[in-house]
Design goal:
The chain is of the alpha/beta class and about 375 residues long. It is built from 14 helices and 13 strands. The strands form 5 sheets. A 4-stranded parallel β-sheet has the order 4-3-5-6, with helices on both faces. The chain has a 3-stranded mixed β-sheet with strand order 1-2-9, with helices on one face. It has a two-stranded antiparallel sheet with strand order 7-8. The protein binds nicotinamide-adenine-dinucleotide (NAD), ligand LNCXM5UN and zinc ion (ZN).
Amino acid sequence: MTDRSETASITVKRMNKGDGFSYPILWEHSFAGLQKALREIPDLHPSRVCVVADSTVADLYLEEVLDALDGWVPTLESFVFPAGEESKNLATVSDIYQVLVAKHFDRKDLLVALGGGVTGDLAGFAAATYLRGIDFIQVPTTLLAQVDSSVGGKTGVDFQKYKNMVGAFHQPRLVYMNMSVLRTLPENQFVSGMGEVIKTALIRDAELFRYLDENRAAVKAREPAAMIHVIRACCEVKAAVVEEDPTERGIRGILNYGHTLGHAVEKCSGFSLLHGQCVGIGMIGASWLSLRRGGIPEEAFRKICEVCLFYGLPDSVSGLTPEEIVEASKSDKKMEGGKIKFILLHQIGDAYIDKNVSDSELLDAAAVLCR
Ligand SMILES: NC(=O)c1ccc[n+]([C@@H]2O[C@H](COP(=O)([O-])OP(=O)(O)OC[C@H]3O[C@@H](n4cnc5c(N)ncnc54)[C@H](O)[C@@H]3O)[C@@H](O)[C@H]2O)c1
Ligand SMILES: O=C(O)C(=O)C[C@@H](O)[C@H](O)[C@H](O)COP(=O)(O)O
Ligand SMILES: [Zn+2]
């Protein structure tokens, strides 16, 4: 088994293909090395830096991050918004633009996304669009952001209650993780992150799935060695998929495992359920359909349910009907040429994209989730 228990770095690379990019992903135990990591990035010479954080993360870590950056640039700003998915909208992006305009940020300046996926998506989208694109870095502080959202350059906001309806692909220049921040992460947010961890294992890393199954106590207790192993494994999978297909023309779609039904549940719940919890619910539906299609055996389906439940993920949702979940799935952006894009499993660790899932199959899968 690969030893991923040491902190280290990997590099996301895609060069000379027209949309080339390359950036390091670093695992550290404090914010102290952030300035050095930034100074090592060639051609990154901002005069102004704005750290974007939500209210909770700002209270916990903003000062430490500003201290870590002290002395690097003449102008160091911060922008703080109310924590929660409700802030992931164009109004907050507009508020970020206002600060950037007021402080005369130019094309060479930099945004720092300090926080979870909401902050990364928002700050990344502001960076993608302000002056037609400025640099940004990701400093992820939730498990979900460390295993998924900080890598790969999907940025954006919700629009009229539709998830991520407006956005852009814009790769960060650096992903810097301070692993110690996981100590303050509330349990429900940890569980939400585990939704994306299990997703990653199911789509491309059977060995990681076994690790999650066999090291339950260590992972659940957030033991540092187990966390580094899990987070590195997820970043390796994500980096590999994104390098292959940065703008989701094809294979990147597998990162959406559990999201077709998951995003629909998230929308129908009025965002009262967390993203990773909804992905967990959606994965049960997608795994059930994989079983029915003869992709995975009954035993694998049971094991997926068992592992999801062990890590605290829900396997069903109350108060919703299968019909409304299907309706919401079909009005999400998963449709291509009138067909829904659904991700299924050949086996644990091997996902594929299927564009032939019928309405009745979708309805049956949604019915499995409604109790
Ligand atoms: N761009 C992508 O590739 C991608 C991938 C997955 C998810 N997402 C998006 O990410 C979002 C979910 O991200 P999230 O789960 O990180 O949510 P989040 O950013 O809202 O963070 C969750 C909560 O945890 C708090 N928090 C963050 N770090 C903390 C810490 N170290 N200690 C204590 N509290 C902390 C935040 O203040 C917030 O209240 C969704 O909008 C989802 O659509 C994007
Ligand atoms: O990076 C990707 O690609 C993903 O699909 C990762 C997902 O976990 C994430 O939730 C993403 O934001 C979903 O993308 P969307 O295009 O379906 O909104
Ligand atoms: Zn997701």
